[in-house]
Amino acid sequence: xxxxxxxxxxxxxxxxxxxxxxxxxxxxxxxxxxxxxxxxxxxxxxxxxxxxxxxxxxxxxxxxxxxxxxxxxxxxxxxxxxxxxxxxxxxxxxxxxxxxxxxxxxxxxxxxxxxxxxxxxxxxxxxxxxxxxxxxxxxxxxxxxxxxxxxxxxxxxxxxxxxxxxxxxxxxxxxxxxxxxxxxxxxxxxxxxxxxxxxxxxxxxxxxxxxxxxxxxxxxxxxxxxxxxxxxxxxxxxxxxxxxxxxxxxxxxxxxxxxxxxxxxxxxxxxxxxxxxxxxxxxxxxxxxxxxxxxxxxxxxxxxxxxxxxxxxxxxxxxxxxxxxxxxxxxxxxxxxxxxxxxxxxxxxxxxxxxxxxxxxxxxxxxxxxxxxxxxxxxxxxxxxxxxxxxxxxxxxxxxxxxxxxxxx
Amino acid sequence: xxxxxxxxxxxxxxxxxxxxxxxxxxxxxxxxxxxxxxxxxxxxxxxxxxxxxxxxxxxxxxxxxxxxxxxxxxxxxxxxxxxxxxxxxxxxxxxxxxxxxxxxxxxxxxxxxxxxxxxxxxxxxxxxxxxxxxxxxxxxxxxxxxxxxxxxxxxxxxxxxxxxxxxxxxxxxxxxxxxxxxxxxxxxxxxxxxxxxxxxxxxxxxxxxxxxxxxxxxxxxxxxxxxxxxxxxxxxxxxxxxxxxxxxxxxxxxxxxxxxxxxxxxxxxxxxxxxxxxxxxxxxxxxxxxxxxxxxxxxxxxxxx
Lengths: 409, 305
Prior knowledge:
The structure holds 2 protein chains of 2 kinds. By secondary structure, chain A is an alpha/beta fold. Chain A has helices at 49-60, 84-100, 123-132, 146-152, 165-169, 172-178, 196-205, 225-242, 314-321, 325-328, 331-334, 346-352, 366-389, 393-398, and strands at 18-24, 70-76, 109-115, 136-140, 183-188, 210-215, 250-251, 278-280, 285-287, 306-307, 311-312.
C-alpha cells in the first residue's frame, strides 16, 4: 500500500446503476436561503400519504420498467425532515412492499436526504435514523464559517435577519458520529466568493472531510467575480497543500479530470441525469427531476411527464433520454479547450432558455468555470511538485485512483 | 413561404383547421410579404379558402411565381387539390396532385376508394390525422392496408402510370431526408400578416416569429434543423414528414418525435421495402432504392442511452 495519499471524492452509492426516485414531501422550509433556486416555496403543498403510496405502488407495480440494479429513494423539500412522520411511514411501506413482492431492489436500496440539519437531533428524526441507519445517506448543508453561512442561510420570516449557523453546527458532531464519512454541500453565489477559503477550511476543522462545493448555475455573476473566485481558489489550494489537508479531506473544486477539451464523438454524453430519475410532488405529478417542478422555476411552466394516476408519458421522456452534449451546446462550448468538468443543470437550462426547450445550454457559469480550471491547474501543479520534492510523486502515480466520471447532479 | 390566405384555408397536413369564420389576410400585408419573398428568393405556396378570392388578391397572387393549394372545386388552377373527404373524390380531375387528410382507421377502411383515386391522379399525399397516437398493436392493420395500396401502385406502374403515393413511393425514390422542414426552410405567413413556424402554430395561438417589416427571427432556429434532432438524424425513414408541430405536441420539443410518429413512419418504410421486393419481381432493374430490413420499429431504441 502507498503511504502517499490524496483523498479521493467519494463515489455516490451505486452511482450509475441506481434509479433515483424523489419525493418532494413538502415545499416548506424553516429557512429562506438567499441563493435557493426554489422560488415557489410554501407551507400548503405537503404530500399526503395517499399520494406517496400511489407513487410507490406505481413504481413497484412496474418492476420491468424500472430494471436498474438498485434504487435511491430521495426525500427533498423544502426541508424534508419537517415531514418526518410521513417519511417514516413511506420508508416502512417501501421496505414491507419490497419484501412482500420479492422485488429485486430488496436489500439494494437507500433512503437519501439533504437536510438543513436544524431538527436533526429531534426525537422523531433520531428514531427514524436509528431504525434505518444501514440504508441511509444523509447530508447536512452547512456553508462554512458563521459569516459565510449566515450570509445566505437565514431563518424565514419578517423582522431582522437571523442566520442559522448555530442551529446547524450544534448537530454536526452527532451527524458525523452516525455518518463518519458524511459530506456537505456548499453553494457559492456572487456574495459568497470572498469566504470560500475560510469556509472550506472551517468545515475540515469541524471534521467534515468531504466538501462538495459548486457555484450556482443561475446567471447571478458580476463583472470581476471570476477573478475573485480564482484568487480564492488559489488561496484555498495553498492552504490545503501547505496544511496537508489533501491527505484526509477532499474539495470538489479540485479534480485532476477537469479543464480538458472534449472529444465530439467519444465524450458527447449529457452531463445532467434529468429524465433518468423520477420526482413526484404533493399533487402526484411526475417530473424528470425536481428542478422541473413549478416551485423551482422562475420563468417557465412546470414540465410534467405524468402523474400517479395515469402513469408516465414516455413521449415526454424522449427528449431527455436522447439529449447529448453537442446538440444542446453553443459553438463556443463545443470548441472550448477547457470543456471537461463544466457542468450544467437541465432544469436551469430550461428555465433560462429563449424558448420552452431543454436543448439550449445556459453558459452563465462560463467565466467561473474557466477561473476554476486555472486554479485547479495551479493546485495540481503545486501538489505534484510538492510530492516530487518529497520523492512521492512516482508512488502516487502508480497507485492513483481511477477517474471519477459519475454524474454530479 | 407558405401563405395561409384565410383563417378557413383548408389544412393540407397533419394539423386540423376547425376555424369557420372567414378572416382574409389584408392586401397590404400580402403585398409586403410577396415583395419580401421575391427579395429573399423564396418560393411561395398559397393556401386557399373554399370561396372565390376578391380580384385584387387574385391580381397580387398572379404577380409572383407560386403554387396553389386549394380545396377541390375552388379553382381549376390548383397545383395541389385538397380533398376534404373521400366522398368528393369524383371531383378530382385526371392527373391532379391530391392531398387527403384521414385517420389510420379511415385509411384501412378506404383502400378501395384510395386505390380508385390512385388510378387517376399523378400524386396522392395522404396526411394522417392521428399518426402521433399510433401504438404497436394497431400497426399490422395499417401495414396490411399499405400493402393493398402498394398492389395498386404496382399495377399502375405495370400499365405505365407512374403514380406517386407519399406513404409508399417517396421512400423508394429519396436519397436523403426530405421532411417538412418548417422553421428551418419554410415559414408561414398567416392571415394576421405575421410569420409563424407553420399554419398549425398559428392556429394554436403561438407567438409569431416575425413579420414582413421586421423580418423573420426564429428563436432557437437550430432546433428545427435535422442536425439538431438526435432521433431523426439517425433515422432513414426519409419520407417522414417529421412534423415539428406534432413533435412539440407529444414530447414538448420541436426536435423530438413521439413514438407514434416514428412507429407510423417505420411501418410505411417497411411497407415501401416490401413493395420494392414485389416491384423487383415484377419489373427487375427498376430504379427504386434498396431498403434495408431493420431490427427496430422506432429509431429511439438505437439512439437512447
